[in-house]
């Protein structure tokens, strides 16, 4: 049987293993809910419910979907995934938990017919490599965890056909071209962050906290056994001294 052309979507939770073991099943349910919600808002509800290959990766999901879903999986799916995660964040935060997702999208040949080997192909390996790439990881790691909840990387194949080809609502300029290198995998790809931000500084000095120390006063001239020092220029004419001074008896 010749594999057919499909869209491949995979998602992965940042810092999933930092949560306690008892919390992991609930977080996995939250991942599924966020993806399902994003699909429904992208007019892909029936497509998602009819998915033939949907695999749990523990801290994420791998789905093999019809090729005509690809454009919507790029946009507006990415934005709706961000929104769904942002909406659930307060409730998770109240429980001491957090959920941010990396997502990768690719297109390629996949067999979704045979139960035992369904989803096994070079395309599924490639989309997994994209998900593990450093540019995608950095997009979340270097952002504000209370602002940026999702980051998406799109393979060059999907980008060239659907984004550059004008089949999505996103302009190509909204993406950042990156190099995805994982093991022997080394490909051009395109990064999209629906709501970008920068990681906040761990410490910002208050207004009352001096930004820098004043330099120690330097020694000035000596007049009648009195050493004159100061931070400003000093003019000594006769018995008159001009400038900011301090005196030290010799």
Provide an overview of this structure:
29% of the residues lie in helices and 27% in strands. Mean pLDDT is 85; it is low at 203-218 and 231-241. The protein starts with a strand and ends with a strand. It folds into 2 domains: 4-192, Alpha-Beta Plaits, CATH 3.30.70.1230; 219-250, no CATH class. It has helices at residues 24-41, 45-49, 70-74, 77-94, 122-132, 134-141, 156-163; strands at 4-13, 53-56, 60-65, 101-110, 150-155, 176-182, 185-192, 222-223, 226-229, 235-237, 240-242, 246-249.
What attributes characterize this protein structure?
single chain, 250 residues, alpha+beta, Alpha-Beta Plaits, 2 domains, seven-stranded mixed sheet, three-stranded antiparallel sheet, 7 helices, 27% strand
Helix content bin: 25-40%
- Major sheet strand order: 2-3-1-4-5-7-6
C-alpha end-to-end distance: 101 Å
**Domain module count:** 2
What is the element string, with H for helices and E for strands?
Answer: EHHEEHHEHHEHEEEEEEE
CATH class of the largest domain: Alpha Beta
* Oligomer class: single chain
> Can you tell me the CATH topology of the largest domain?
Alpha-Beta Plaits
Enumerate how many helices there are, as a single number: 7
CATH superfamily of the largest domain: Nucleotide cyclase, GGDEF domain
Query: What about the largest sheet?
Result: 7 strands, mixed
């Amino acid at each position: 049987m010749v594999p057919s052309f499909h869209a491949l979507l995979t998602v992965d939770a940042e810092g999933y293993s930092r949560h306690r073991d008892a919390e992991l099943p609930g977080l996995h349910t939250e991942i599924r809910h966020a993806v399902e919600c994003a699909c429904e808002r992208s007019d892909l509800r029936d497509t998602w419910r009819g998915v033939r290959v949907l695999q749990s990766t523990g801290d994420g999901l791998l789905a093999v979907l019809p090729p005509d879903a690809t454009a919507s999986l790029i946009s507006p799916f990415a934005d709706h995934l961000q929104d769904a995660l942002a909406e659930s964040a307060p409730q998770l935060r109240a429980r001491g938990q957090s959920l941010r997702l990396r997502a990768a999208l690719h297109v390629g040949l996949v067999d979704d017919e045979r139960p035992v080997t369904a989803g096994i192909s070079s395309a599924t390996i490639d989309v997994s490599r994209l998900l593990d790439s450093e540019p995608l990881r950095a997009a979340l790691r270097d952002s504000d965890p209370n602002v940026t909840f999702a980051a998406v990387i799109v393979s060059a194949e999907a980008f060239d056909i659907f984004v550059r080809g004008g089949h999505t609502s996103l302009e190509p300029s909204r993406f950042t071209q990156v190099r995805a290198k994982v093991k022997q995998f080394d490909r051009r790809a395109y990064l999209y962050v629906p709501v970008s931000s920068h990681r906040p500084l761990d410490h910002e000095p208050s207004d009352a906290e001096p930004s820098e120390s004043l330099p120690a006063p330097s020694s000035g001239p000596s007049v009648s056994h009195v050493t004159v020092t100061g931070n400003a220029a000093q003019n000594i004419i006769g018995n008159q001294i001009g400038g900011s001074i301090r005196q030290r008896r010799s």
